[in-house]
Amino acid sequence: MDLLLTQLADTSxxxxxxxxxxxxxxxxxxxxxxxxxxxxxxxxxxxxFLFWQxxxxxxxxxxxxxxxxxxxxxxxxxxxxxxxxxxxxxxSSFHFHLTLVPCLLFVAYWLSQAAEGQFNSDFLWxxxxxxxxxxxxxxxxxxxxxxxxxxxxxxxxxxxYLYAQSGLVLTAILFVGYVGFxxxxxxxxxxxxxxxxxxxxxxxxxx
Length: 207
Hints:
The protein is an all-alpha fold. The protein has helices at residues 2-9, 13-30, 36-53, 57-82, 94-115, 124-142, 148-165, 169-198.
């Protein structure tokens, strides 16, 4: 416990700001508030710098991607809000996910092997796997695909371990909290999907 408190006391101001904004992003996304994307943009800009400092190149690149996706996600949500009906939560088929996940993990393995000569890290494959799965899941969030929260559940568990091993203790604790947020987000979006589906909104049913 003393070690944990010492590590938290040593946490930089930048990491504290990034964590607070990251929490705000998840809560606002679960509530379908477009303000989530502003919080995401600022938080990920900070993390792009922080992850590079601790030799997590794929996480740094991922957060640079998140900055772009924050703009894209805001546009997608605002575009939906201007139409006659609010952009509804949708679902994807089981076969889609059964194909997507193994393909991404294979590409992550290839990327980690290619990066071994450039970076001194024991977690390149995990780093790359989280990177690619998170990219795909962010597109799901932007298009309001319900299953994104299931992806985040497992991504957050893996991320918490990776960040703890890299010395970013506060961020690791954040991602442990994200595990619970992903369950809340799934429940929130599932209720919205059920309500709209029952009310006759045009939502894509799961196959």
